[in-house]
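Thread: quick sanity check before group meeting

JM: Hey all, I'm pulling together slides for Thursday and realized we never actually wrote out the predicted structure for the chain we discussed last week. Dropping the sequence here so it's in one place. If anyone has concerns about the input, flag it before I start.
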Amino acid sequence: MKPQELEEELLSSGHFACPGCGETLAFRHVLKALGKRVAVITTAGCGSVVDGYWPVSASKVPFFHCSFGTAAATASGLKAGLEMIGDLRTTVLAWAGDGGTFDIGFQSLSGAAERNEDILYCCYDNEAYMNTGIQRSSATPKGAWTTTTPVQNLKEEPKKDVDAILAAHRIPYLATASIAFPEDLARKVKKAKAIKGTRFIHILIPCPPGWRFSSDLTVKLARLAVASRFFPLYEVESGKRYQLNSMPEKIPVKEYFRLQGRFSHFKEKQIDEFQTEVDARWEELLERMKRDERPCS
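JM (edit): ok, ran it. Output follows.
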């Protein structure tokens, strides 16, 4: 990739995102890392609305809208069509939220992963159905407030481990990423671009209205998610070779929670229980890495 391509902005101003939107930051960095030769598929959701209403678009690359559950299927079809006309260079990017990935779109994603379709799939995970009114998804953390899990009837189930599920498909490449670490995100996108087959990048996206925090704290919260080990940064190759990308100095998970209104109802006991769960997941990740004997990069 030429240096000038990395510097070119492929997402223009004038998009329809909320102030402090983490999704636009992620999309901007992903497009810059991929360069112009990319075709984007996005589902109904924040990513679709942010780009703009027809006939305008904030993206400077081909941008295709599809139904909520068909990002991976549509991307697979587009890639097949490009190959039929001899275009082997264009990267097909499926860009979908947690609702369109963890839930409604998982069937088509699992099918594409099983077939090892040659697509790059990025999930912008803001941990709820934000575009339609902050409803609970299977990516919503246990106990978090949403409009469908109010304080009187909170979510009792833990967040779905979609990364472990995708890793079990033995896809060539999987990674987690954060808008607070743009160099790491860009490196992973460029690495994924060079690999053939299904690649999956899971990006945590703080959402000011959905998480109930001030819009100037977006990047800080993304950084705290990693620092508290709530959202570790790692890569998985072929479903079994794990590599941790960051060994943060552990900070209490309550430092991450205290800035978010969706956790403001948590008592000390609930925070302690969540801390225990975060610690257990971290140890499990270290065990996976240890089995592969791959050091932190």
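AS: nice. The chain has one domain: 3-292. The chain has twelve helices and eight strands.
JM: adding both to the slides.
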